[in-house]
Amino acid sequence: MPVPMLDDFLAYTLAGTRPGAEEKQGTCAGGVRWSWLDDGVLQLEPTAPEKAARSVLASAGVHGDETAPIELLSHLVRDIAQGSAALTCRLLVILGNVDAMRDACRYRDDDLNRLFSGRHAQVPNSHEAPRAAALERAATQFFAAASAERGARWHIDMHTAIRASAFEQFALLPHTGMPFSHAMFEWLGEARISAVLLHTTKGNTYSHFTAQACGAEACTLELGKVRPFGENDLTRFAGADEALRHLLAGTHGTKGDAKAALPRAFTVIDQITKHSDAFELRVAADVPNFTPFVKGTVLACDGDYRYVVRHDEERIVFPNATVKPGLRAGLMVVETTQDTLSSLV
Ligand SMILES: [Zn+2]
């Protein structure tokens, strides 16, 4: 029997519909069991998952206006429910900032993707604080029942970027102190992600939370530019979509095709900091992410503070001169592909 919630999970969620007590779970095609857990939170699992089956958290809409990956996830739910997409592992689908999705904005009070790992407790009156706490609980509960075997826990958090990028699709990997995994790099390659940014300090993103607190192989994907619902050319996101479907079907890495190239790696070496309102960022307002600059280039000034490029080449990521004084106005990275790929475990 068709379940309207599963046929269009996005529309169901945007409408604010909540299932009655009798309608919170059921079985769909192929014996997949589904459970509605919260607004925008849906768990799906095969009737008899293999013992060491993967547990995959797939999230989108942590920024409410990043519509394309939200639509992809909603289509994925529909295809699993109808039996046209295979599911051999546990799956938790999360549409992140539902209220912001309804308003077609990034967030209402605070960037949800800066409130994880407990930071929501510091802004209790923020509209986003309860949602950050709820999404932390959802992830914790989901992974509590997951296999502890290495590589069994995955979190793919899908975003679209505001600005252009020298690498159109890239990923950010959280810093937990653990080495980066070969399986993740291979999966990113299969998803046609051409560059990976490696953080070197702890963050407050959702993928950082699941990596640190839940032991997940976690990544944040930046999949091209933001557009309104229905206006996305979803074929541009086919690489990530197919790779996610392979991961869920258990066919990831076993196709026998020529392996996709691993992404290039870039490690954060510094940040540009805005100290005062006199801050001046000396790059074009629309400079693409990962634009390279040569040694000696002055990228920012603010009173006595200067940011001068020290390496032969440094690239700027997420420049933003409009942040509040004291905050980060840009990340600086250098290429570390060789060292990174040779140290994957
Ligand atoms: Zn985003």
TrEMBL record:
Cofactor field: Zn(2+)
Cofactor binding, per record: Binds 1 zinc ion per subunit.
The EC number(s) this enzyme carries: 3.5.1.96
Pathway listed: Amino-acid degradation; L-arginine degradation via AST pathway; L-glutamate and succinate from L-arginine: step 5/5
Species assigned in the record: Paraburkholderia elongata
Catalysis performed (reactions): N-succinyl-L-glutamate + H2O = L-glutamate + succinate
GO-annotated biological processes: L-arginine catabolic process to L-glutamate; L-arginine catabolic process to succinate
InterPro entries recorded: AspA/AstE_fam, AstE_AspA_cat, Aste_AspA_hybrid_dom, SuccinylGlu_desuccinylase
Chain ranges of the AstE/AspA barrel-sandwich hybrid domain: 264-335
Succinylglutamate desuccinylase/Aspartoacylase catalytic domain mapped to chain residues: 53-246
Name assigned to this protein: Succinylglutamate desuccinylase
Pfam families attached to this UniProt entry: AstE_AspA_cat, AstE_AspA_hybrid
One function term, GO molecular function aspect: succinylglutamate desuccinylase activity
NCBIfam families to which the protein is assigned, alphabetical: arg_catab_astE, PRK05324.1
Domain of life where this protein originates: Bacteria
Active-site residues, record numbering mapped to chain: 222
Enzyme class: hydrolase
Gene3D superfamilies in alphabetical order: Zn peptidases
Purpose of the protein: Transforms N(2)-succinylglutamate into succinate and glutamate.
Protein family membership: Belongs to the AspA/AstE family. Succinylglutamate desuccinylase subfamily.
PANTHER family cross-referenced by the UniProt entry: ASPARTOACYLASE (PTHR15162), SUCCINYLGLUTAMATE DESUCCINYLASE (PTHR15162:SF7)
Ligand binding (Zn(2+)): 63, 66, 159
Keywords, comma-separated and alphabetical: Arginine metabolism, Hydrolase, Metal-binding, Zinc
